[in-house]
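ok new one. same drill as before - structure tokens go in, u give me an amino acid for every spot. 676 of them this time. try not to just spam alanines like last time pls lmao
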């Protein structure tokens, strides 16, 4: 592939390799620092002493790539907060209350019961420390939400982040650990005192500006649903979007427009280029214009929260803007790689962000596949050509993100091309007019006519998205797709793209090899489908048991709902295990998997006069039994308590099992019990 002849792309790939090594291995930070310093020193000496002769040497190239890999690994380790000497995890008082001084750094999307924030720790038990916590504050209609840069004084127990409690469930613990968050607090408004509300960081000032904009827009007459979309598209904040509207955007395949990314920043760059065009009449216009554009783009990124997608987009378009004004030719692949290279040097954890991955893959899909698709047909009339351009851009982006989208979300919106034909022109109008609306609101010149026009545009967009999302038959859900299928799918796409470009038989052969690999992987999964398992799921206040036989799952439960397949714990298991058939049944007292017998003792507490001795016993719905007597009678190897039991009962059972040397498994602490 000719792209790999560019040195920056090679260096970027080895930087990524180094970050992955740092993530998946246990390198020591100090050893990595020493090794990287030595490699850089050797490389520098060779460069300055033998520049003209050694640069073309393969050994020098290998040394450069090894050095870049070491830099990637070291950068990742440096960015792990736990490696900092004064990190709070080294000073926690276990299983007791800790006195904390915190500064709020970010407001997150709330759940049904709590407002959620990220906060940096300023002190722990009177000791100066560093680190980040997740804060859950119980919702209170009489208490205003916290602002960024608020300093709080509180005493509370630091709780570890809960890992997944059911098979194939989203791992929120790992997600937060990649952001250097290892513990959380649960507070009520009475549990903390605000020590300071002053703004001390650029993020605090940005949050204050967003709050001012929202208050002005609310006073001007914008409704909450409209304000939620404005905040998402223009200010990068999605916390206040109504959940039904948000789900409609997901199901219609247009969720990308609610996350400020390359599309948004590209439109803003076009607007700024037009506004500052008169500056080119000045002698220093070719310096002043790009400088102003870059500064304003980064101010926009800060206001939008510096998410991975907006950071990537602003970095890339800043490079493009400077290159355009220097009148030097730019290669879009090099520009993309340089922006990603700079971002990962500063924020290596961004590599694991879904938004970061998808934004780059979408742009790569557009620049690689869109021109080839567009050439297939050249409409003569503008009114047909423009929709065709939008369609090819959308299709190129979809090709770029489809495999990884299926891997993370397991669904595909079949009507994405229809929704994007409308949404993309709408987005340009919403961004352009939205910036004007915000400026007018801040200046106090926002008139009701403009409010009504802009509200109508956004409401019309929401209505259209809702209409598209209503065609549920075109939304393909619960599609199993693993990481191997992702890699093989991208291999097929790259090979076919290269074959189309250079008509080389080797790329056609490579594509066929990847297709065969995909088929082999499918056959392997089919052969594995004879798995048999018994699963006691963790479901609060209920009992859910699964019996898997190959690609079928029989679910036994006492849920009120008639359709168990709508439960996330079953949907996740179905996708993760690639099941094809789910059946539901009422709970039974006994289950058998091969020679293993599971006895369910429910609230009735019946277990006498059995004709067999079960090796495993499930306690559900808080049975009032003498557990010690039951153990002596049945002599089980395992005792399971699911989340339908009272906590005080479980604690008593746990003590009894420890005394009787019987294995005890509580699903609320240890997750689902799986026997296969």
């Amino acid at each position: 592939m000719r792209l790999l002849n560019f040195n920056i792309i090679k260096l970027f790939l080895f930087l990524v390799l180094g970050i992955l090594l740092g993530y998946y291995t246990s390198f020591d930070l100090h050893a990595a620092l020493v090794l990287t310093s030595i490699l850089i020193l050797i490389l520098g000496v060779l460069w300055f002493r033998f520049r003209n002769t050694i640069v073309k040497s393969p050994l020098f190239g290998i040394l450069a790539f090894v050095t870049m890999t070491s830099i990637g690994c070291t950068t990742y380790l440096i960015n792990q907060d736990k490696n900092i000497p004064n990190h709070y995890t080294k000073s926690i008082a276990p299983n007791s209350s800790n006195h904390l001084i915190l500064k709020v750094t970010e407001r997150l999307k709330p759940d049904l019961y709590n407002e959620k924030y990220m906060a940096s720790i300023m002190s722990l038990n009177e000791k100066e420390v560093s680190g980040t916590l997740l804060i859950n504050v119980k919702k209170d209609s009489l208490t205003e939400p916290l602002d960024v840069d608020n300093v709080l004084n509180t005493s509370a127990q630091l709780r570890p982040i809960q890992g997944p409690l059911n098979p194939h469930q989203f791992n929120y613990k790992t997600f937060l650990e990649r952001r250097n968050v290892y513990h959380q607090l649960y507070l009520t408004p009475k549990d903390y005192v605000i020590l300071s509300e002053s703004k001390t960081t650029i993020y605090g000032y940005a949050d204050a500006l967003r709050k001012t904009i929202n208050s002005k827009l609310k006073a001007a007459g914008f409704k909450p649903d409209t304000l939620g979309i404005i905040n998402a598209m223009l200010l990068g904040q999605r916390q206040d979007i109504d959940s039904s509207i948000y789900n409609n955007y997901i199901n219609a395949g247009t969720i990308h427009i609610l996350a400020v990314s390359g599309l948004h920043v590209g439109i803003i760059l076009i607007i700024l280029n037009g506004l500052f065009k008169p500056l080119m009449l000045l002698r220093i216009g070719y310096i002043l214009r790009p400088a102003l554009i870059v500064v304003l783009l980064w101010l926009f990124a800060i206001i939008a929260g510096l998410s991975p997608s907006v950071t990537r987009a602003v970095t890339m378009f800043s490079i493009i803007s400077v290159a355009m004004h220097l009148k030097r030719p730019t290669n879009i692949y090099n520009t993309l790689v340089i922006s990603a290279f700079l971002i990962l040097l500063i924020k290596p954890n961004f590599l694991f962000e879904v938004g970061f991955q998808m934004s780059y893959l979408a742009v790569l899909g557009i620049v690689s596949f869109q021109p080839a698709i567009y050439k297939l047909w050249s409409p003569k009339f503008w009114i047909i050509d423009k929709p065709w351009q939008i369609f090819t851009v959308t299709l190129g982006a979809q090709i770029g993100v489809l495999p990884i989208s299926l891997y993370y979300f397991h669904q595909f919106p079949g009507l994405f091309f229809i929704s994007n034909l409308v949404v993309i022109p709408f987005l340009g109008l919403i961004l352009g007019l939205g910036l004007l609306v915000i400026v007018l609101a801040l200046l106090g010149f926002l008139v009701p006519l403009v409010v009504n026009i802009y509200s109508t545009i956004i409401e019309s967009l929401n209505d259209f998205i809702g209409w598209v999302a209503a065609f549920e038959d075109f939304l393909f859900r619960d599609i199993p797709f693993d990481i191997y299928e992702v890699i093989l799918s991208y291999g097929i796409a790259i090979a076919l793209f290269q074959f189309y470009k250079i008509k080389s038989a080797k790329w056609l052969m490579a594509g066929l090899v990847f297709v065969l690999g995909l088929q082999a992987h499918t056959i392997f999964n089919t052969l594995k489908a004879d798995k048999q398992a018994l699963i006691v799921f963790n479901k609060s206040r209920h009992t859910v048991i699964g019996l898997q036989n190959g690609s079928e799952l029989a679910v036994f439960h006492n849920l009120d709902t008639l359709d168990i397949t709508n439960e996330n714990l079953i949907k996740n298991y179905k996708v993760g295990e690639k099941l094809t058939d789910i059946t539901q049944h009422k709970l039974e007292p006994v289950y058998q998997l091969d020679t293993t017998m599971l006895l369910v003792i429910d609230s009735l507490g019946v277990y006498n006069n059995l004709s067999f001795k079960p090796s495993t016993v499930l306690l559900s719905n808080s049975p009032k039994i003498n557990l010690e007597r039951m153990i002596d009678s049945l002599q089980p190897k395992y005792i399971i308590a699911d989340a339908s039991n009272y906590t005080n009962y479980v604690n008593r059972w746990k003590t009894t099992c420890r005394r009787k040397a019987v294995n005890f498994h509580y699903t609320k602490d240890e997750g689902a019990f799986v026997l296969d």
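Confidence is low (pLDDT under 50) at residues 1-5. and btw The longest strand covers residues 114-124.
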